[in-house]
Amino acid sequence: MTSFTRQRLIGLTLFLVLSALAIWLQSRWFGAMLRLSFLSGWILFVLILALTFYNGRKKLPFLPLLSSQAWLQFHIYAGLLTGVLFAVHVSYRLPSGWFQGTLAALYVLVMLSGFFGLFISRALPKRLTARGGEVLFERIPAIRRELQDRAEALALKSISEAKSATIADFYSRELKVFFESQGNFGLHLLEVSSPLNRVLNRIKDLNRYLNEQERSVLEQIALLVRQKDGLDYHYALQLVLKTWLFVHIPLTYSLLLFTLVHIVLVFAFSGGAR
Amino acid sequence: MKEQLPSPDFDSGQYARPNQNWICGHTGEGKPCRIGPDQKGRCRASFECQPAFELKEGETKGRYRCTRSAQQGGPCNLGPLPTGACSRPIPKCVPVRSLRAKRGLFTVSVVAFTVGVLLLGLSRPFRARFVSPGELSAQHGTATFAAMAGAAGNHDASCAACHQAAPAGLSGWVKSAMAATPAPLQFRAMAAVGRAVMTSLDDRCQRCHTGHAFHQPNVAKDHSCSACHQEHRGPGPMHAPSDDNCISCHASAEAMEASFAVGRAQPAIAFDYRPEQGRVLFKAPRPERGYTKIIHSFATDHPQFQVLADKLKDLDTLKFDHQLHLTNVALPNGKKLNCSDCHKPDAAGVYYLKISYEENCKSCHPLQFDVDNSGLVLPHGDAAHVRDFVRSLPEQYADFGAKKKENASRHDLENFVQKQIKQIREQLGSGEELEQRIFFSDARTAPVARIGERGAVGAARFPGCAYCHEVAPSGNEVPQVTIPTIPDRWLIRARFDHGKHFKVACATCHDTEHSRQTSDILLPSKQTCAACHSEQGGVAHDCSTCHGYHSPRKEQRTIQAAR
After folding, report:
1. If B307 and its partner were Cys, which of A88, A136, B228, B312 is the partner (CB 3.0–4.6 Å)?
2. ipTM of the complex
């Protein structure tokens, strides 16, 4: 059993046991333990705080606080556990009122964005690996520029070597925009390759009008087109992998703020009542 | 499977700095400068190199040498300017934030927005609506309640009717929260199990709802109102308390013992309440220990209904035989009597209408004392009227004859009266004897034994008041006929809705076919109820299905049951 499998097994077991315990405590003690919801609320708050600290942990890699993988596993299973605790805390009822409604909506959004993040962090890396052409996200603009420069150089070279502007014209007409921009974002996410096929078909169509020397140049340009498409693919998927946190993290802080006010309101207004 | 692309070539000497807040504005074009912006996002681009001054041996002037790195293409062709400056300036840019910095900025913006929303929501004009966890119940959400609380049109004051901290504002709420009992960090107190004690919130309830007298006088310690009554759950009626609320006391031996001790010192009259809007209640005597048995649920240890457990008797003086009526009586249409022929539901269908002679008995039991004059009947409801009727029999016959024979002459009427009086004297004796028979005879002493058989010409319908009623002589006065009092409610500490049980046949719960005595109380046992009202039965079986916490006030008419 690998370390990851063991961590996953431990996490899943703990999640199931603690969830069952929370549900049992709610059903068994809800009436007798009058302030059970206070306790479940506190546990929920502490768990959310611990989950939030995962973001801080990533900024402090030098601290000997378990591996990032262990933290991620904790983040996933503790996050799932908050779902159960939340349901127990609200006694399986939909909260009402502006404040509580917003608080619940924030929690649900954070939870859903977490699920989305979990899904894409599992699914997209597999797609990226299958596609190949591994590249760091930050390097993509520079590599794209380099591919563009190389393609332009080949197009110019074909003029002097083949004494013909056919490839150069084709480049400026069909390929210049393709190399300059990050295109087909949505289609790459949906794993649609028709834009690439369209460009390659046009290159193929052009091939019949070229001499041997030009065909060799066009072949090199076609290779660059494939690399550029792969780069766009990486850009689209990696951008999604990075931007889902634009929802998850800010909403988490909003959730914490609302939770703090919620705690104050509950204790101030309940007067000790349940 | 698609062909896997090779990783693109990249000069690893180019450092991307993804963790810095600012990156070169030319990054998007794929040509960032090497130095990048400073920490404050200012462009630091100047020249491609800083030429180095070299002075060789023997030279006096020296010369500048290009120091551009090999990664940038090595020394340039132009070389430094004579002034020593680089001849290749780097184009300036407008630095942009890195993706990470953008996320940080977005996060800060969202947090600031959240703080703004909270401050706005918690500001005085909006806070009452903003923090309210839901609409109030019908009882507390009305303008009348707000007016009672002195808060008409003022939401803050309306909240303050129950929540002491409401008008204090955010800082006051923090103080109140810290001073709450239990305080925010008193986890042991939060985990306490047991009876819900009164809280400051409950104290506010008691401003209008005085004390706990509305439950039982033997409540040993006040129970928290808000533990049972959850507010802000919507505009309908307040939600019924759960069984947990009830058994927090009723399943506690300590609480019940304390309750017994308190109840023992109370006079019986203290427990005598239960208005039912004019209904006649059957009141069972209070058990020696009161109602302090330990109860966890209806199906398990709820005691048998007291009327059955103590074998109490119905004290009504009316003589009625359910078995006889349901088995031996045939209606003119040939059918037998049904329960519903006499017991009619009220408009709401919850209870049944009162049984009355006029509505339920008269059609079969007209007070016809004369065999030959079926339309001449005794009055019902007042013994004095009956006696007056009997003592004025000639006049009654005269009136009856006049109605019966509209065009008859006076002479004919006199003859009719004389004839009828003669006949009745022959049948029943003197006037005094007739009066005695009418009041005191029962079926066995009546002229005929067949009672109430409709349409049987010649049969006396009326055997005597004592056939149905308890009649006692009173010297020369009018005999005393005890007025029957039929209870409308038997289990007066619980609610019952007949309308909800319309699918159940009457005989399933009420054993009428074996009842021959009025004193039989034909209530179903607890087990009969629990067959449906239990977990196994699948029908609601929580305490509030039958019981209400709040006891009504005194009732005027009651029947004290006897063992």
Report:
1. B312
2. 0.91
